[in-house]
Amino acid sequence: MLRYKYYGEQTGKQGRPKEFDDKVDVKKLDTNYFSLDLSTEEFKIYSAVVNSKAFKRDIKLAVAVFFKDGKEIARKLYFSTDLEQEGIKIVRYYR
Hints:
Blueprint: E1 2-5, E2 20-23, E3 35-39, E4 43-52, E5 57-68, E6 71-80, H1 87-94
Antiparallel strand pairs: 1-2, 1-4, 3-4, 4-5, 5-6
């Protein structure tokens, strides 16, 4: 499960501070977190820093959306544990 990191203000109430926001839905990418790294006629690459529950750490997620004749044909997820790496390089290295 992938989760968005919470960057908002803490409430100041008792208890553990909020660390994560919502789950990542790859069909509907939240533009508050994802940024468009590259856009061509054939594909678009979006990237964001998210938390992976399985890996118990933050990862840099790159979502590649492929198009053919103007219609979406596939979505592929690529990731790296290097949070500073660009989404374009992640897709290039692991594709």
